[in-house]
Write a sequence for this structure.
C-alpha cells in the first residue's frame, strides 16, 4: 500500500504543477494563503510566502477579485480564482 500511495502522491505533485489540477481542488474563490496550504500539503514542504505568491502570479493563471476575504484578519487578503480557459 505504501508503494501505491507513494505513486499517487508523486502523480498528484506533478499534475498540480503541470496540469494545474488545483482548479479542481479549490473552491471557486480562495485566498493566496489557502492556495499555498494546498501546495504545501501536496508537496509536503513549506514554501516562502513571497516567493510562492510571486510564482503563482507570474504563471498568469489567477484572477484577483475585487471582493476581499472577510475573516478575522485586520488586513483582509484578496480573493482569487482560476482564470477560465
Amino acid at each position: 500500500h505504501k508503494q501505491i500511495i507513494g505513486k499517487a502522491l508523486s502523480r498528484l505533485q506533478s499534475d498540480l504543477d503541470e496540469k494545474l489540477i488545483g482548479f479542481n481542488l479549490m473552491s471557486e474563490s480562495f485566498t493566496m494563503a489557502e492556495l499555498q496550504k494546498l501546495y504545501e500539503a501536496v508537496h509536503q514542504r513549506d514554501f516562502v510566502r513571497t516567493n510562492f505568491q510571486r510564482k503563482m502570479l507570474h504563471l498568469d493563471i489567477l484572477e484577483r477579485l475585487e471582493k476581499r476575504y472577510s475573516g478575522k484578519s485586520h488586513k483582509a487578503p484578496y480573493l482569487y480564482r482560476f482564470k477560465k480557459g
